[in-house]
Structure formats: structure tokens, C-alpha cells
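Review box. Two proteins, two foldings.
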Amino acid sequence: MQKEINSNYSILLVDDEPLIRQSLYEILRMEGFPVHMATSAEEALDKLKKLPVDIILTDLMLPKMSGLDLLENVKKIYPQAELILITGFGTIETAVEAMKKGAYDYVTKPINDAEIKLILSKIVEKKQILKENQNLRQIIDRVAPASFCQMIGRSEKMQKIYQIIESVASTNATILISGESGTGKGLVAHAIHQTDKNRGDKPFVEVSCGALSETLLESELFGHVKGAFTGAIKDKEGRFEFANGGTLFLDEIDAFSPNLQVKLLRVLQDGVFERVGDNKTRHTDVRIIVATNQELTHLVKEGRFREDLFYRINVISIPMPALRERREDIEILIQHFIEKYNRINHKKVTQASEEVLKLFQDYHWPGNVRELENAIEGAVIMAKTEIIQKWDIPAMAKMSESTEGKSTNNGKSLKKVLEEPERELILAVLNECNWNRNRAAARLGINRTTLYNKMKKHNISFMRPKNHESR
């Protein structure tokens, strides 16, 4: 059985001494390995160009190019190949140094058959495990979807989100989607509606509550009758009526005033409401999904959000992970956005450079997926070649330069360390946008309300300081 396994792993034997070469050849063949031979490092490198080799067994002392030189060349060109050095007693120190450079192991002359067999069995076992893991990864990749209803991500966290959506979609439960701005809360709401077998073909209506004043929001949701307030020149149907039978998605639910919270609670409990300025009670049958980037439990404790309303909307909770919590999805998100903005802008960008990928993996993404998308959109437009380079993304390059070489936190808390680059980035973008907060929010990939909250959090003035310099 072991010989059958060994037959899957070929060995290149490199030695300029015919007797040693022949002796090792017979040992290796008896163990079931396919064996190729070379008398020099140069010949070995030439054969490696033509032969798929898994293991290289080479003498350290070879004519012209040494076994150590062969090791260095092999690791550059064929990093997956494992190399075993054959050395004399006086060169053990060199062999140990070779292991630091990537050699798997070494054996000393005279060669002990049992020792070489043991080393080879360990290499085969290692390669078998890697092969099994690769096969398992391929199976997982086939089973685990990389996308779901326009959401992109193969990470464990995103797979859990997909499972929750499928479980709750066709129920009438009210759903609370929480998470930082830009994490994809709106996409989750759309996915729930699309997957809902009962309401998926009915209207999906979205309201950005934070963008409207209390009066406008009340009219938008519940409608109004002619003369209800200045400017109400005719009756207007509200979103609760328009979404009847379908789904109503209320984004930034934390923006609701106490008065509107009471009215929303009534709709949730009894499915009834009145238009603004009207006494007629109307009925609605809507699936309500709400979203927030705030900690509602904190707002409840502060008395700014009704506790009974919180429990009513928190029947099913879907917390969205920040992008920095699912970094394994960054690369496939980048590729997705490259393809998307290639189509829109008639470009032919194929990928991001290794430097850009590392930059994106290291960045903390305060604006999450929305910020990443904006960065890739700009990069695709600016790219002069088929590969996105660091200079195609000026804002990210600045962030990289500002954090380069900072390996310690100087005794600061993790929270403080993470906040500092976010503050610097906000200040830098505000300066670039001449302190136009709408443009700055768009550049950062967040909405205006979130930008205001972050400016308050980081104690950034809402007025442009004189002679301001980012510090």
C-alpha cells in the first residue's frame, strides 16, 4: 500500500559519484518511487524544466554549481519541491544552514537506508496531507457559494448570513440588520425579499430614514391628506400602503423620533395606521426589515429608543461583519468590482497587483465593502495597464505611507490604535474635498450621517480650521 502511495511522488537524484547514485537508485525504486537521475546541478535544473518532480535528493558537493546553489535555484523556480541534502561529516554546519534556506532535511555519509526511508516517508505524509487539504478546499469551494443574491463572500461569517437569510426569508418575522456603514445591510434586506416565496414578487420599498426630517419621514411612511401641512396640495400614499403585500426596508431606524417610534410600534403590533392629517384608519400587510449602524441597546439605556419597540423589531437579528473581520473575502470582492467597473467603463483591467492586494489586506476599511468598491471603481478608471497598481489608488497609498513602519502601539489600547488612522483618513479626505462633507462622505464610501457621527467621535470640527494640517 505504501509503495502505491510512493509511486505518486517522483524523485530526482543528483550525485556525481556513480556508485552512490546507483545504490540510492535501487533503494528508492524498491520503495516504489519513480526515480530520475542527474550527475550535476546544471543537469538537474535542465531536467526540472521537463519533469514534474516532487522530491530532490542531492549531494552537497557537486562539480561547478553546489547542492546549496541548486537549493536556492529550486526554491525560486519550484518552491513546491522538497530537497534533501547528502553531506559529509565536515559539512554538517553548511547543511544546517541549507535547512534554514528551505531544505527539508539532510543525511550524512555513509548513508543509512533506514534514515533516508524515514525522511522520505515524512515528506510523502506531508504531501498527502496537503493534497487532501487541497481536495477538501475544492469541495468546500464548490459547496460554499461565493455569492448569494448579489452579496459576495465565501468566508464562514458570510456563509452563516446566507443560511440565516434562507431560514427566515419566507416567514413574517421582523428582522433587525445591524452593522457598520458599508457592510451590506441593504443587500441583505434585498436578499431576504428576493428569497421570500410569499412576498418576493411583491414590492420592495426602501426608506433611508436618516436622510429625512421628522415631518418628511412621517409623510413618506404613512402618507398625508391634502392640507395636512404647508405644501400638502393633494393626498399622498405612504410607503406602508405602497409596499402592501411586500417588504418595507427602514434603513437607519435609529433616526426615528419618539413620536414616530410610537406610530411604528402600532403598525408592527396591529398592522394599522393613519395618514398625516387624516382620521381614517388604514390596514397594511408588510414584512418589515430594519437596519442600523448604531448600538440600539445603548440608545434604549439612554432613553432615546423605546425598549418595547426594540424587542418588537429584534425578532430576528442579523449582525453584519465588518470587512476587516472577513479579510479572506477581500480578494474575491476586488475581482468582482473589477469586472463590474470594467463593464461600466469599457475597460480591460484583469487584476490588482500583489502590492495592492497586500495593501488592501492590511488596511482596516472604516467604510467597509462600500469603501472598497469605491476604491476599485476609481482604480479601474485610473489604471493605465491591465493590472491595478498602488499609484492608481492615491488615497490608499497615503494610508499605507502614514502607517508604514509602525509596529508598536506605544502602550495605547487597540481601540485607540485603530481609531487614529480613521481620524487621519477623515481629515485627509475632508481637506481633499475642501471640507464639503457630502463629497467627503461619498469619497469615504459612507453616508453623510455616518460621517457626522465619526467626526463627533473623533472630535473633528464641522467648520474648516484655519491653516489646518492633518496631524
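Next protein.
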Amino acid sequence: MSSRQPFYGTQAWTECANAYRKKVGGLCERCLKEGIYRAGEIVHHKIHLSPDNLKDPSIALSFDNLELLCRECHAKEHQEQKPYKVDELGRVDLPPIR
């Protein structure tokens, strides 16, 4: 398990992610740009979390750094970037932070 994983269970992240979903209307932002209406399921960080920025609220909790994605778009985002692996449910398996 990555050291980033505990962050996603915090009250701050849960509240932030829920508020962001509500703000953008619950649809996948990338699909919507293509005229496709698909439910967004994963609040994604545009600048990915790292040990250096994990505790920086302007990265970890800022709406400017978030994007609501469907599982398909989230999987595409992370499969293009090695060494991430995405399972069939769209969950990202991150390498350990050293």
C-alpha cells in the first residue's frame, strides 16, 4: 500500500471530493467535453500527489487541481503514465513512495 492511500481516507479529502463532485454536477469532465454524458466516479488530481506535495492543500485539496472522471477516463490517465497499474474497476495501484 502506498503512503498516499491514508490521505484518501481522511475527512478533509472526503469532504473536498464530495464538494467537488457536487460543484461540477457529477459528470465526467473529459467525457462532457466530447458531448458524452457519463457519471463521474473518481476525483482525480491533475498534478499527481507525491511525498513532496501530499501535505500541500493547494495541490491535495484545491478544486483547481481536481477533475471528476469516469472509470474509463481515469484508467486511461494512469495507464499512459508508468509505473501505475489500473485494475478492471479503475482503481490505481501506485508504487511505494520512498
